[in-house]
Automatic annotation (TrEMBL):
Pfam families to which the protein is assigned, alphabetical: BCDHK_Adom3, HATPase_c
E.C. number(s) listed in UniProt: 2.7.11.-
Protein name: Protein-serine/threonine kinase
Family that this chain belongs to: Belongs to the PDK/BCKDK protein kinase family.
Gene Ontology CC: one annotated term: mitochondrial matrix
Record field: catalytic activity: L-seryl-[pyruvate dehydrogenase E1 alpha subunit] + ATP = O-phospho-L-seryl-[pyruvate dehydrogenase E1 alpha subunit] + ADP + H(+)
Stretch forming the signal peptide: none
Protein species of origin: Pichia membranifaciens
Protein keywords: ATP-binding, Kinase, Mitochondrion, Nucleotide-binding, Transferase
Length: 461
């Protein structure tokens, strides 16, 4: 059986999209984002138990409302009837599949357009402290993470149907024509607006978490299965989707405008994420943050067991975020636990057990296991770690620290209470998961499952 090979024409369409293709992406973002933002504004205004009145919550609401207003004020380009029909005709006409028989029994899945989050592309680290790693090299064929299918077969319908109320945004835009200046100007204008919106919302997680922590202290609120926990899960999951859509639209437009071609990336999606390299970047970041926080020269080492050639499709920024949060927790727990076991000894003089990271590739998942000897978590406290009212930090984040974060985008080391639950949402966004098993008195194992199948769709809420 001959292997499928990407044609030059398809490669050109993917890596060098036409202004018309970029117009479709920008147009979708401008029309989809206000819907998502408006839902969040309404939720922020109607939170239970007076949480909506917290100044930090109102600030986040105002950011979302301002972004909604800016997107609603975007004017559509003035185009000739010919170009408008070519670019926007599928707003009113049924979409036809090229090369397919019109009698094929097909129907739209209501979640046809899958866009996914945040999208800070981590640079490939140019320094790795080899003394901090112990690695096992295994040969493995790279397996790719395929995108989900957007069309489902139906045995009942003989015709291709478009559900009522569903807009379709995809329309083939040829590469071999000259597009009017209005199209490229529209793409640039939308990109500039999205860059401004993305920067405005950079501090959303810290600001919202600060509001929740302040409200919790005033109300002595400790319920686990509360409507506020459910709201925060919905809100943060929605934020991941919004950031994904914004980041992807910005990236594909900027890559085209600056003529940057990279076979590894389509927007913020890396087609060949090297798991080992990304883990090493996360280790570097977590160890540096830990050294800075505890003011020590040396923190626990990390032993990494991962095949060097293990790759798949993912958003590197998401993976780095999840790994950084879990590693940071493991490093902190290990230092604090062993400092209690060695009273009177300087932190730099304690011999810490290493943290172990094991990566395995299965048929369905790539699983990353992070094991530490940080003393574990009491069984009664395990359910609390998935709520937004619990933090193991000894002191809460200060207002000055929050302002520093907003200005420099430097994430506070601890105290927000969102690290693990937020990381679990990142994992679940692409149909993965994050699980924790604790052995009190010894340590904790965290399992990060990354879905390799093509069955994941965006969890719209």
């Amino acid at each position: 059986m001959s292997m499928w090979k990407m044609s030059d024409a398809l490669r050109h369409q993917i890596y060098k999209p036409s202004p018309g293709t970029l117009f479709h992406a920008s147009y979708f973002a401008v029309h989809e984002l206000p819907i998502r933002l408006s839902h969040r504004v309404r939720e922020l205004e109607n939170l239970p138990l007076g949480l909506s009145e917290d100044p930090s919550i109102r600030l986040v609401r105002d950011w979302y409302a301002q972004s909604f207003e800016e997107l609603m004020s975007v004017e559509e380009p003035e185009l000739s009837d010919e170009f408008r029909d070519m670019l926007l005709k599928n707003k009113k006409d049924d979409f036809m599949w090229e090369g397919e028989d019109s009698n094929v029994k097909r129907n739209y899945n209501r979640n046809s357009f899958v866009f996914e989050d945040d999208g800070v592309i981590i640079r490939k680290s140019n320094r790795h402290d080899e003394d901090s790693f112990a690695e096992i090299e295994n040969s493995a064929e790279p397996d790719l993470f395929l995108n989900s299918e957007n069309i489902v077969s139906t045995a009942e319908n003989e015709e291709f149907e478009k559900p009522l109320g569903l807009k379709t945004y995809f329309q083939h835009a040829p590469n071999d024509i000259i597009y009017p200046k209005e199209v490229t100007d529209y793409n640039k204008s939308v990109t500039n607006i999205l860059v401004k919106i993305k920067k405005r919302h950079d501090a959303t997680v810290a600001t919202l978490a600060r509001g929740v922590q302040n409200w919790k202290q005033k109300n002595n609120y400790k319920y686990l299965n509360s409507p506020i926990n459910q709201f925060l899960d919905r809100f943060y999951m929605s934020r991941i989707g919004i950031r994904m859509l914004i980041g992807q639209t910005i990236a594909i437009n900027q890559q085209s405008q600056k003529n940057m071609q990279n076979d590894d990336y389509v927007g913020i999606i890396c087609l060949h994420c090297n798991i080992k390299e990304i883990i090493r970047d996360a280790i570097d970041a977590a160890r540096f943050a830990c050294e800075e926080h505890f003011d020590v020269m040396e923190v626990p080492k990390v032993k990494l067991y991962c095949p060097s050639d293990l790759t798949f499709r993912y958003v590197p920024g998401h993976l780095v975020h999840m790994l950084f949060e879990t590693l940071k927790n493991s490093l902190r727990a290990t230092i604090e636990h062993h400092s209690k076991l060695n009273p009177g000894i300087d932190l730099d003089d304690i011999k810490y057990p290493p943290i172990k990271i094991i990566v395995a590739k299965g048929d369905e998942d790539i699983t990353i296991k992070i094991s530490d000897e940080g003393g574990g978590i009491p069984r009664s406290a395990v359910p609390l770690i998935w709520t937004y009212f619990y933090t193991s930090a000894e002191k809460q984040i200060k207002e000055d620290d929050l302002q520093d974060f907003h200005n420099s985008h430097k994430v506070p080391f601890m105290g927000l209470g969102v690290g693990l639950p937020h990381s679990r949402l990142y994992a679940r966004y692409f149909s993965g998961d994050l699980k924790l098993i604790s052995m009190e008195g010894y340590g904790t194992d965290v399992y990060l499952h990354l879905n390799r199948l093509s069955s994941s769709t965006e969890p719209l809420q």
